[in-house]
Amino acid sequence: MRLADKVIIVTGSCTGIGKAIAERCVAEGAKVIIHGLEQDLGEAVAAKLGSLKSVLHIEDLTAPDAPQHVVDVALQTFGRLDAVVNNAALVISSNIHTTDAAFLRKVLEVNTVAPLTLIKAALPHLSKNRGCVLNIGSVNAWSGEPNLLAYSISKGALMTMTRNLGDTLHRENGVRVNQINPGWVLTENEAQRKHEQGLPEDWYKAIPDVFAPAGRIIWPAEMAAAAIYWLADESGPISGQVVDLEQHPFMGRNPPKDASTLTPTTS
After folding, report:
1. Which of the four pLDDT bands, split at 50, 70 and 90, describes residue 258?
2. Of the residues 151, 204, 211, 230, which is catalytic?
3. Model pLDDT, residue 61
4. What is the dihedral of CA 188, 189, 190, 192, to 10 degrees?
5. CA–CA separation, 198 vs 187, rounded Å?
6. With contact defined as beta carbons under 8 Å apart, do 146 and 95 qualify?
């Protein structure tokens, strides 16, 4: 198995992409710390994976001592720490008119500052085991949609952080840092968001080709499959890299003028 005996923190893993990554990590031989804010959903994930392979920690990562708490849970439960997956994020709509300083700071705290503080708390243990960090970003990091201003800014900052730490921590601590940028993924939260925006319950079954050449959008399990490569030793010395995972060229694309108004929120 590709992750045999590794201990991995996966933030935001009670639902969606994080949940899929946690499940795939266990399938590949790892033990995982499930993290999130939804106690009932987290307990369901932990029950599915089993107490020998997982432990649940519920806490807001923006709390001052939360990153250290998550690291301590890993060490106390499994005795080591090999990798951190920074997946937890606040996906929230805003534009230039609705984004004030307080709102932007809130989004940055969750999506950029919390991943940094968790890396700092985990670093001594990752260094000991020549471990790695995988940040889960978004294709919105490159520019972003008009109604995702604060979110896009936070993911752009995360991408710069990945490249910076991917260089410095690899040289100084032997810790690799990489990032995947998911495109439009059919998570539970995304399905609910679009339904709340007025789309029918089965909106994802009829997405225009311009957004989904494959006839569907990406599944969380497909993101999880990609994540395993970066968490496994087979990715070798590669560090400081950001990979976009979408089903069409994201930058420089020219969609038809009659493209549907149905736009992705993405991860």
Report:
1. low
2. 151
3. 97
4. 90
5. 17
6. yes
Sheet holding 54-58, edge to edge: 54-58, 31-36, 7-10, 83-86, 132-136, 176-182, 242-245
Torsion of the alpha carbons at 216, 265, 67 and 35, rounded to the nearest 10: -40
Contact (CB, 8 A) for 225 and 218: no
Domain annotation for the chain: domains and CATH numbers: 7-245 (3.40.50.720)
Q: Which of these, 140, 35, 25, lies nearest to 83 by C-alpha position?
A: 25
List beta partners, residue 176.
Answer: 132
pLDDT at 264: 57
CA-CA distance, 176 to 32, in Å (whole number)? 19
The predicted model gives 20-39 an average pLDDT of 98
Kindly write down the DSSP assignment for every residue of 114-171, as one continuous string: HHHHHHHHHHHHHHHTT-EEEEE--GGGGS--TTBHHHHHHHHHHHHHHHHHHHHHHH
Question: What are the helix (H) ranges across the chain?
Answer: 16-27, 39-49, 66-78, 101-108, 114-128, 149-173, 188-196, 220-231
The SS3 of residue 10 is: strand
Phi-psi label, residue 236: left if phi above 0, alpha if psi -120 to 50, beta otherwise: left
* CA atoms within a 13 Å half-sphere pointing along the CA-CB vector of 209: 4
What pLDDT, on a 0 to 100 scale, did the predictor assign at position 78?
A: 98
What separation, in Å, do the N-terminal and C-terminal C-alpha atoms of the chain show?
Answer: 28
Whether residue 85 contacts residue 8, with contact meaning beta carbons closer than 8 Å, is answered with yes
Residue (of 151, 155, 81, 69) closest to 123 by Cα position: 81
Concerning whether 151 is annotated as a catalytic residue, the answer is yes
